[in-house]
Design brief:
Elements: H1 5-24, H2 26-41, H3 53-57, H4 63-74, E1 93-101, H5 111-125, E2 129-130, E3 135-136, H6 138-141, E4 144-145, E5 148-149, H7 161-165, E6 175-177, E7 184-186, H8 187-190, E8 191-192, E9 195-196, E10 202-204, E11 207-214, H9 219-242, E12 249-255, H10 258-270, H11 272-288, H12 299-322, H13 333-355, H14 362-392, H15 397-433, H16 455-460, H17 480-493, H18 496-518, H19 526-529, H20 535-546, E13 553-559, H21 567-581, H22 596-606, H23 608-611, H24 618-628, E14 640-642, E15 649-657, H25 664-680, E16 685-688, H26 692-723, H27 727-750, H28 757-783, H29 789-820, H30 824-855, H31 863-877, E17 890-891, H32 907-912, H33 945-971, H34 986-1004, H35 1008-1015, H36 1041-1045, H37 1048-1053, E18 1054-1055
GO cellular component, one term: cytoplasmic vesicle membrane
Protein name: SSD domain-containing protein
Subcellular location: Cell membrane
């Protein structure tokens, strides 16, 4: 433990020296960060915005990408002359429409509907697009089979649609030959939600889809295809949403660039809320940094704290762009986070500033401020940085990029607050030293000197202290909210029934979290990438409703050189095919399986006698296969790969049809089962579909999330233990982290958030955020020297209750803009940050104080026993004599030792069993501040053991003395006896003195001989001369001077000349 305190001591000393330098030369620390920020902002000219959803949301080394590499190494797609839709490996360029009826009749098999479908097809194919100084239409850039563009041959049903509508011709599922055009119609490809009889006769078709594929063989075609897609989407929007030219059909549209567009829209949707969020946070920080004292208020510092966070974020982003890191839309969530974190650090530093003595010069106050705030802001920044560091190693590029930008912003924010914002505090300190108004910077009078001024002046202008009376309690008011947390909120929690209620609510919370964890769903659905009001949402709804019966045409590749004439190899391939068909995810109907080997062997078997051929050797097999089955017009030629000699097959491909797949969990199970079959096969088999690249996240997200949470929790506990070396505290911190993380995971599922790459980012962040509140409240409780647990609760909440409350509010306010953006990605950020901050605050304010009071130090000591001990000690050491103050006593004198034998212990030293420390070592706090101006009670200096004992000693003495002497003192509340040593009637005395002097002034100023004498500067006395004016029938008042001689506050503030 002693060794670990080296970190604490080193931080204190380093920050102390930094504070001295900043306090002496604030201008340099103000200007340099501004210049660096401007330099960093020049990096925005090198921004590279990446909106590729496949790259961002699929794992870098996922199995799907490996499988695609295998397929493309043998069967590269040829869009120019050999294109087949079932054999694509990448998205390419395409447009797709799903058409339903809107006239009340759901059946699409009608002449009127088909006429509108033909019109829609003509409009799409004849649409003129201008790109790169060139006009073109669909057939100029279409994907082709031989010389023909890919066509939606289902539209040729127009020739028989009149007979179909009149029930003269029946359409049979899954396919039939058109009696007019002789086209083979594969109905599952084009029809969705088909109703049919047991015999396969189609009764009704509620939906039809049409697809248009563009050429993507080279960059030029790809760019032209992208331009055509944009025009395609605009055309559908115009003819349906604007012109509404169709009476019978409703069209939903989608293209390969739709998700790219949606990611870009997501980025743009949150930008307008930057300004409003900054304004809200500025108002919040200004208000929370203000006090009724208009000199000590720091409203401009609250605003500058936001500005510091904004500058740090801008600089960090610019340097990341200089480093060549791609920029993605979800990075725009980082500024909202940084503003919340930055304002927390602002509160901590302001709290430490308010804790410093106004009697000291500004550089010394700056040194003490940074020394006290060292651990507070460092532990927050370090935990956040480590959280983002964990995310950098994620296999998901979206997580990695976000964590790089956010981690850099957190580092810059830490440095900017220690330099730029610290310099702003120093300048404000110089203004405070001159007693200038905190808003308008003109000199004002303290409250004690402005009692006769207008009430508007007292309300809006008075502040600071009287340099001749620095300790006037009228000018040093205690914060009301902190008193509330100590005297009311803590007292409320200390009731036994309230503790039981809190534990019961916590049990319900855990039950809800456990239930939510069992209900969590995995995977980032494509619809989640789109905005909530996007046209893509309707398309996804139609696809889910009508086209999930036959969703995926899956390729199976067998690579390696096999002798396909060998019956053993043929049998193994057939067994593999049947194994796929026998799973619940694949259609068992052989009509939906296309295997050239199965078809070829059946063809040879049926025509053996007629053809008079044999395929018993590899040479015969290859020769007959090429001659009979792999003609240039046959698509089977796309599924066989020969070596360079053309004499051996090195790869083959067949197709299976997935059926009735719905939901991400079902998709994950399907991919897992198919890959398992390939691994167990004796052949070198691979399965692939272009969507498998996205499905890989389903396999990784759960395991990665659990691993990141375990690693993160371990790192957070280690960091907490290093900065707060207390084993028991670390255990409670670990408990809190696990509890909060369980709550976040469980309740995010109940709130509609899936476990995906976006929520993984937030889980990583939440690990760091969960430490802030809980570690500090635990340490405050552990560090308290109070005997009873109830007293420890009061001290802990007095120190940290208000900072925790305002820190949580500031973070949530900073994230509200993300909720207003109206899209899933940013709403996940808000929901999860809200959950972790809310649960962290509830743990810090309710649960941990209760659990620590029951199971922590002091839980076996009652408050009554503590008070009895106090009274016993005081009664032994303090005889309570009536005595007159020594005439040599003065405030702020030199040294008590001038009249005291150092070898003879004073009563207070006998009481405390230790030498009393000087003023600078007193008045320390118990814990680490988190986020508010008054978290000074939770500053780093309070960790010193001696200071804690002195502070606790003062409270024990004050409470015991009040119990022992208040009864007599209250009987003789004589305001003429000046209690300069810190007892309870300081305020009464000053009020009474003001009243006496007002009366004397009104009387004396009427007499000229008195007026001049009255205006002479008076000698500062203790007690004041007003105390010696005799009054008739005045009761004898007992002086408490002796008792205050040994009062700790007196020892800190009083000296003999």
């Amino acid at each position: 433990m002693v060794g670990l305190r080296i970190v604490d001591d080193y931080l204190n000393k380093s920050f102390y020296k930094l504070g001295l330098v900043v306090g002496k030369h604030p201008g340099y620390f103000l200007i340099v960060p501004v210049l660096i920020t401007i330099l960093g902002m020049t990096g925005y000219q090198r921004i590279h915005n990446n909106i590729d959803p496949e790259y961002l949301f699929s794992p870098v080394n996922g199995e799907g990408k490996y499988e695609r590499a295998v397929v493309e190494s043998f069967f590269k797609v040829n869009y120019s002359s050999r294109f087949d839709v079932a054999r694509i490996t990448r998205a390419g360029r395409w447009g797709r429409v799903i058409v339903t009826t809107k006239d009340g009749d759901k059946n699409m098999l009608r002449v009127a509907v088909w006429n509108e479908l033909k019109l829609l097809d003509e409009l799409i194919q004849n649409m003129t697009v201008f790109y790169d100084d060139e006009y073109f239409i669909y057939r100029d850039i279409c994907a082709k089979w031989l010389n023909d563009c890919f066509q939606n041959d289902i539209l040729n049903l127009e020739y028989i649609m009149d007979d179909v509508e009149n029930k003269l011709i029946n359409l049979t599922f899954p396919g039939m030959i058109n009696p007019v055009t002789w086209d083979i119609h594969a109905f599952p490809v084009f029809f969705g939600g088909t109703e049919r009889t047991e015999d396969g006769i189609i009764i009704s078709v509620p939906s039809v889809q049409l697809v248009y594929f563009g050429n993507a063989d080279n960059k030029k075609y790809d760019e032209k295809g992208a331009a055509w897609e944009d025009a395609f989407l605009d055309l559908i929007e115009e003819i349906q949403d604007k012109k509404n030219i169709f009476k019978h059909i409703r069209i939903t549209r989608f293209a390969s660039r739709t998700l790219d567009h949606e990611l870009e829209k997501n980025t743009k949707s949150v930008i307008p809320y930057f300004t409003s969020t900054f304004v809200v946070m500025a108002i919040f920080s200004i208000v929370t940094c203000m006090m009724t004292d208009w000199v000590r208020s720091k409203p401009w510092l609250g605003l500058l704290g936001n500005l510091s966070a904004a500058m740090a974020t801008l600089a960090a982003f610019g340097f990341c762009m200089y480093a060549g890191v791609d920029f993605i839309g979800i990075n725009l969530a980082a500024p909202f986070l940084m503003i919340g974190i930055g304002i927390d650090d602002t509160f901590v530093m302001l709290a430490a500033w308010r804790r410093t003595s106004i009697k000291q010069p500004v550089p010394e106050r700056m040194a003490q401020m940074l020394s006290e705030a060292a651990v507070s802001i460092t532990i927050t920044s370090v935990t956040d940085i480590f959280s983002f560091w964990i995310g950098i190693f994620s296999p998901f590029p979206s997580v990695t990029i976000f964590c790089i930008y956010s981690g850099a912003a957190t580092c810059f924010l830490f440095v900017w607050h220690l330099t730029f914002f610290a310099a702003c505090v120093a300048i404000s300190g110089y203004c405070e030293h001159k007693n200038l108004h905190s808003v308008f910077c003109f000199k004002v009078q303290p409250l004690s000197k402005s009692r006769n001024r207008c009430f508007l002046y007292r309300w809006f202008c008075s502040g600071g202290v009287d340099p001749d009376d620095l300790d006037n309690p009228l000018d040093n008011q205690e914060h009301g909210f902190m008193v509330f947390f100590r005297d009311y909120f803590a007292a409320f929690l200390n009731y036994g029934c309230v503790k039981i209620l809190v534990i019961l609510i916590f049990g319900v919370y855990l039950l809800g979290a456990g239930y939510g964890i069992t209900q969590i769903e995995e995977g980032l659905e494509r619809r989640k990438v789109a905005k909530n009001d996007s046209y893509a949402i309707e398309f996804f709804d139609r696809e889910d409703d009508y086209f999930k019966e036959f969703p995926y045409r899956i390729q199976v590749i067998i690579s390696g050189q096999y002798d396909y004439s060998n019956p053993v190899v043929q049998r193994r391939i057939e067994n593999l095919t049947q194994t796929f068909e026998n799973t619940s995810y694949i259609s068992s109907d052989r009509l939906y399986t296309k295997s050239w080997l199965r078809e070829f062997l059946q063809y040879i078997k049926r025509n053996q006698d007629y053809l008079n051929i044999t395929i018993n050797t590899n040479e015969e097999f290859i020769r007959e296969l090429k001659e009979l089955y792999l003609g240039p017009t046959s698509t089977n030629s796309l599924d066989v790969k020969f070596d360079e000699t053309g004499e051996n097959i090195i790869a083959m491909r067949f197709f299976i049809q997935a059926v009735n797949i719905s939901g991400t969990e079902h998709e994950k199970e399907m991919v897992r089962a198919l890959r398992k079959i390939c691994r167990e096969s004796q052949l070198n088999a691979t399965v692939f579909h272009p969507y498998f690249v996205f499905f890989d996240q389903f396999e990784l997200v759960r395991s990665l999330s659990i691993k990141n949470m375990i690693i993160g929790a371990g790192i957070m506990m280690l960091v907490s233990f290093i900065f707060i070396p207390n084993m028991l505290c670390s255990i409670w911190v670990a408990f809190s982290i696990l509890s909060i993380e369980a709550g976040v995971v469980g309740y995010m599922a109940l709130w509609g958030v899936h476990l995906d790459s976006i929520s993984m980012i937030n889980l990583i962040m939440c690990i760091g955020f969960s430490v802030d509140f809980t570690a500090h409240i635990c340490y405050a409780f552990m560090s308290s020297k109070a005997k009873s647990s109830d007293s420890r609760v009061k001290e802990s909440l007095y120190a940290l209750g208000l900072p925790i409350f305002q820190g949580s509010v500031s973070t949530i306010l900073g994230m509200i803009g993300l909720l207003l953006a109206n899209n899933y990605i940013f709403s996940v950020f808000f929901k999860m940050v809200f959950l972790v901050v809310f649960f962290g605050a509830m743990h810090g304010l309710f649960l941990l104080p209760v659990l620590l009071s029951l199971f922590g130090p002091g839980s076996c000591t009652s408050a009554g026993d503590d008070e009895d001990i106090k009274l016993s000690n005081i009664e032994k050491s303090l005889p309570h004599p009536y005595c007159i103050p020594h005439p040599q006593f003065t405030l702020n004198g030199s040294n008590l030792g001038a009249v005291k034998d150092p070898n003879i212990p004073s009563p207070i030293e006998r009481y405390s069993k230790k030498q009393f420390k000087n003023f600078g070592d007193m008045d320390k706090d118990l814990g680490l501040g988190t986020s508010e101006e008054n978290s000074s009670e939770s500053s780093i200096q309070s960790q010193k053991k001696a200071a804690l004992e002195d502070s606790a000693l003062e409270r024990r003495y004050r409470e015991a003395w009040r119990r022992n002497s208040d009864l007599n003192l209250n009987q003789y509340r004589n305001p003429q006896v000046l209690d300069i040593f810190g007892n309870d009637f300081d305020v009464d005395y000053y009020r009474h003195r003001a009243k006496i002097e007002d009366n004397r002034r009104s009387y004396s100023m009427q007499r000229p001989e008195v007026r001049s004498r009255y205006n002479e500067p008076k000698r500062k006395q203790s007690p004041p001369e007003g105390g010696y004016y005799p009054r008739p029938n005045r009761n004898l008042g007992r002086s408490s001077s002796y008792h205050n001689i040994v009062h700790p506050r007196f020892i800190k503030e009083s000296r003999f000349p």
